[in-house]
Amino acid sequence: MSRFIFITGGVVSSLGKGLSSAALGALLQARGFKVRLRKLDPYLNVDPGTMSPYQHGEVYVTDDGAETDLDLGHYERFTGISCRATDSVTTGKIYSNVIAKERRGDYLGATIQVIPHVTDAIKEWIKADLGDEDFVLCEIGGTVGDIESLPFLEAIRQLGNELGKERAMFVHLTLVPYIPAAGELKTKPTQHSVKELQAVGIQPDLLLCRSDREIPADSRRKIAQFCNVRPSAVIQALDVDTIYAVPLAYHAEGYDHEVCRHFGIDAREPDLSRWQEVVDRIRSPEGEVNIAVVGKYTSLLDAYKSLAEALRHGGIANNVRVKLNWIDSEIFERQDTVQHLEGVHGILVPGGFGERGSEGKINSARFARERKIPYFGICFGMQMAVIEATRNLVGIESASSTEFGPSPEPVVGLMTEWVRGNVLETRAAGGDLGGTMRLGAYEAVLKPGSAVAQIYGKTAISERHRHRYEVNFNYKERLEQQGLVFSGMSPDGILPEIVEIPDHPWFIGVQFHPELKSRLFEPHPLFVSFIGAAVTQSRLV
Ligand code: GLN
What is the model's pTM? Predict the structure, then answer.
């Protein structure tokens, strides 16, 4: 029977609750346990799919096609376990399910209320779709004290009571700030945050205290005393130089030990050798490469979380530090400005939506192609590279995407039908925007002998998608004559999945999001290869 660990956050947001949950998952895994991580988000959107990346950061897509919170990316990168649609839920989804049931008459005339109907639906979700997991870690989004999170807190309170101490544990992540004028770390915000939790009936079993400096023993004792926890269960979480050092740092502070102690488990010590190795590699790279990421949401780097991590994984595999230059593509709308990319070792145009900044991306792809700088186009970045090649290699100047409006030469067009397994998915132009893209894992067939077939070491792959438009197959022949090869296609041969330029050191565009599948201990082959090409490039310039 699975044990549940509920993780809440207090004092302020952005303390890294997702990362911290992922790190605990990794530690329990290193002790030989099977873990599962889940995220409960209190906002009213049914999923984050329709939210602006500026507001919410990246939308993380699972194999089974759910658009989820970016914390699921941390879970996968740290534990290597693929999340499922059932690992992410929001207030919006819970309510829409409850209301749909009410409309069907499933409640048999009852008055529908937050308690018990909404809280029951949350509890069901938390316990659904589980197998033989030893631990289920449930992270509650938001900060304790928010109105929105109350039904979730009530649901986990009830669950804690139903499951008992031996099967449920409450972890609370807080901040212990340093006040320079007083020259002291302050415990009061933590005390208040715990009071807030206690007011809704939750007594945390362990406090994870973020701090920028060592928390003295007497402060920890004070926190323990006021917050009603064991002194050894006040764990300090100091800032670290790399996120991948977090599991090691937590272990050194006794976090996983306290968790096992809470459940009365006499577990073996974790084997953290591979974590230590990887952190050593991160700390002593043999070189550095400069990668320009030419995108749109560059003012909020959370919008490209998985991308940044996948590039780092590529760096670790090549023993180099990857320096990322985030550049707003609008800067490159004027041809001459693109010269600023001179000297970078690789150019990456990531996924994106909408016309703004697209000409800058097209110019960047052209610069990379002509100057023979490694180019990696992801989703939108592939589409822009194909438009560029159609304009400047094939000579069709008006080539464009219908995403930007009607075009006489729609090299990229709206997808209205595609095949998923044996099912034909259809979409109407002007339909709902939420949850209607081509989402999740789809297979692709690679051209034998192509660069990508070599990089993957196979010709059948499965990658995660999130797009509404596709490269128009009708331009294939003309593009291939000019040297842009369609080296990956959907199994039915209709949807272009990968393009590459054989006569170039490294020029690859992919319609999917490989960054979503890169993990610390299983770096994605395309990122390993791209950074490898950047290393070669760095020796040339
Ligand atoms: N906007 C493009 C589309 O919908 C690309 C999407 C993306 O980059 N994720 O097809």
Answer: 0.94
